[in-house]
Amino acid sequence: MKIWYISESGHPEWMKKSAGVKARDDAEEIFRRRFDAINIKYRERKNLSFIYKILEHFRTAGEWRRGLDMAGAGDIVFIQYPFQVHSIFLPLLFMSLKLKKIKTIALVHDIDSIRNGDQPLKIRARYRLEESSLRIFDFLIVHNDTMSSIMENAGISRKKLIPLGIFDYLVDGPYRTSRERTKDMPIIIAGMLARPKSGYIYDFPKAIGLNLYGINYEGSDNKYIAYKGAYEPDELPDIMEGSFGLVWDGESIHKCSGLFGRYMRMNNPHKTSLYLAAGIPVITWKKAAVSSYIENEGCGFTVKSLSELGKYLAALTDDDYMKMKENAITAGEKIRSGYYLDTAINEAVKRARMNRRSLCENS
């Protein structure tokens, strides 16, 4: 038995300063440390006619098939989902792997039909078709227990689901600035700053300082808000200045609203891992799925509404903040090393091997 991982090389240009690149690249690095790669090359093609788009789906499926021919009966293949190099024919390909007795395990980064539910019908149809692969994979590494429950309600067996806990965020070297942080510094907001995703910024409670890092900021600096620019994901942990990192999505300060708010109820935003990897305590929405991690680890606090934030910060003592910061550093040490995905991989491999033995004994 051999264990492989799919390596989809290359990224679309628009993803270069996106957390999505960092999450996938870190997962690939963790896989690379342990397993051999099956390489699938990404090629970005634009403005193709309908016929050429169909041909491209065939070509992509052929590339996946040729790569997967390296795996044999009893082997295990790890795949990052959603696919970067996608084809409408991939579900059929993964079904054929079952006939070859090859086990497939997917690391689920996002459920696009929920996250991007406002896309045109043809794009949502593609999401649904690709998501049919989730029922075919033997095991799924998912964000958390909430996502596990949602998938179970959608008909996927709980036995196939392995909660990750939180995403890793690989960082080399020691913490550089976290121990000098104080509770009186501005709050950090990192990520996509455009209004549909981060509209709450433009209605943020007055008298609370903000340091903003990311792309598509539509406002201007003032007494309380300082836009610090956009950086590569690997640069941010050493650059961000502030007391807490805020994890919040949507246009409202009163709750995480809209599609992004709905998604917050089930996903682990990668910016949570960014903040903790930098030793920065986290503030998030009380109804966010990641809130249970923050509360259990004591590495920040949660609020029902950002209108409450001033009250919480005013009541926070230096000792309270010091404890949250130390807990953030402790959590961050695991996140920086790849602990969470390594643990989930071990569990997935154990289940795949047990499943294989059970099938052999019953045959």
So, CATH architecture of the largest domain?
Answer: 3-Layer(aba) Sandwich
Number of helices: 15
Structurally, the number of domains stands at 2
Strand-and-helix sequence, N→C? EHEHEHEHHHEHEEHEEHEHHEHEHHH
Separation, N- and C-terminal Cα atoms: 18 Å
Major beta sheet summary: 6 strands, parallel
- Overall pLDDT metric: 91
Say which CATH homologous superfamily of the largest domain is assigned: Glycogen Phosphorylase B
In percent, how much strand structure appears in the residues? 15-25%
Shape, principal axes of CA atoms: globular
Would you state the CATH class of the largest domain? Alpha Beta
Give the total of beta strands. Answer: 12
Q: Could you describe the 3D structure shown?
A:
The protein is α/β, with parallel strands linked by helices and 363 residues long. It has 2 domains: 3-168 and 339-362, Glycogen Phosphorylase B (Rossmann fold); 178-337, 3-Layer(aba) Sandwich (Rossmann fold). It has 15 helices and 12 strands. The strands form 3 sheets. It has a 6-stranded parallel β-sheet with strand order 2-1-3-4-5-6, with helices on both faces. Helix 8 (195-198) links the parallel strand 7 and strand 8 (210-215). Helix 11 crosses helix 14 (318-337). The longest helix has 24 residues, at 339-362. It is globular. It starts with a strand and ends with a helix. The mean pLDDT is 91.
